[in-house]
């Protein structure tokens, strides 16, 4: 609230309405699915046609709809324009729920790491002489790649690497939850912490089914962290000594 007040009231910073990219992405899918352009009339450009949408729409990337050579829509620059966009989005989603949910499912599957799209990466090492050219070559769909520029060539590492795919951590959370719910040790503090972390990660990932703008690993940071913590606590539960186990007996007693 403080940042919003300072930016809006004191500095008079122009709001960018970042949520609009997701709304445009959904409306583009609905337009192609129904055969009618459903963008708000006031936000359409001269390129707002089904033929152009077929070229610019990509489940893995919403940015070309606004920022490309032939964008079908322009960015909403005022609260009134954003409100109109939101109004149209609500109307069309309610009219065409199947098309909308199919579109969101495609994005979510890509987000989880299914499909032929390379997974998103965390880091890029750009050559000092021309970082912009390197960035363009390695960052399709704004997904940063682990890459190194050596003697004029770009080398990418970890392409399709499983640890960069959220589905691995979603599966780990599900296994931990299932095993602990059936375990007699689920009342242990470590087991409770493992369950909380796993459930938190799953809720975080599930929410992106509705509003993830792109299948990028940067939206899965909490999922990865919470799943990793959950695995640590889960290992502690598995290795905790049972009654009668020599590990549960004090060292002095064992010596006697």
Please tell me about this protein's structure.
The chain is mostly helical. 52% of the residues lie in helices and 3% in strands. It is built from ten helices and two strands. It has helices at residues 2-10, 20-34, 50-56, 79-95, 97-112, 131-138, 166-181, 189-211, 221-238, 251-255; strands at 147-150, 153-156. The chain has a two-stranded antiparallel ribbon with strand order 1-2. Strand 1 and strand 2 form a beta hairpin. Helix 8 packs antiparallel against helix 9. It is elongated and about 70 Å long. The termini are far apart. Mean pLDDT is 76; it is low at 118-129, 134-151, 154-159 and 251-256.
Helicity range: 40-55%
Q: What is the subunit organization of this protein? A: single chain
Structural class by sheet pairing and helices = mainly alpha
Strand order of the largest sheet: 1-2
Mean pLDDT: 76
Please provide the ordered H/E string of secondary-structure elements. Answer: HHHHHHEEHHHH
The N- and C-terminal alpha carbons lie at a distance of: 64 Å
Strand content: under 5%
Number of helices: 10
Compute the number of strand runs: 2
Approximate shape: elongated
Unreliable spans are 118-129, 134-151, 154-159, 251-256
Major β-sheet annotation: 2 strands, antiparallel
Rg measurement, Å = 24 Å
């Amino acid at each position: 609230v403080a940042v919003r007040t300072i930016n809006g009231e004191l500095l008079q910073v122009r709001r960018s309405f970042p949520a609009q990219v997701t709304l445009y992405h959904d409306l583009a899918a609905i337009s192609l699915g129904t055969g009618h352009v459903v963008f708000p009339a006031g936000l359409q450009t001269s390129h707002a046609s089904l033929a152009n949408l077929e070229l610019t729409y990509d489940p893995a990337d919403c940015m070309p709809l606004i920022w490309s050579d032939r964008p079908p829509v322009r960015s909403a620059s005022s609260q009134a324009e954003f409100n109109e966009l939101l109004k149209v989005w609500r109307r069309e989603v309610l009219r065409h729920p199947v098309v909308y949910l199919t579109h969101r499912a495609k994005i979510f599957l890509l987000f989880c790491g299914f499909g032929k799209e390379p997974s998103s990466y965390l880091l890029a090492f750009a050559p000092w002489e021309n970082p912009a050219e390197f960035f363009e070559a390695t960052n399709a769909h704004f997904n940063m790649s682990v890459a190194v520029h050596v003697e004029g060539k770009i080398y990418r590492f970890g392409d399709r690497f499983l640890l960069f795919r959220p589905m691995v951590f979603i599966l780990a959370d599900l296994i931990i939850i299932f095993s602990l719910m059936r375990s007699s040790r689920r009342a242990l503090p470590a087991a409770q912490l493992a369950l909380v972390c796993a459930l938190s990660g799953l809720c975080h990932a599930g929410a992106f089914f509705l509003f993830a703008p792109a299948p990028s690993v940067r939206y899965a940071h909490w999922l990865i962290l919470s799943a990793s913590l959950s695995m640590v606590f889960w290992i502690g539960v598995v290795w905790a000594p049972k009654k009668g186990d020599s590990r549960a007996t004090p060292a002095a007693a064992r010596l006697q």
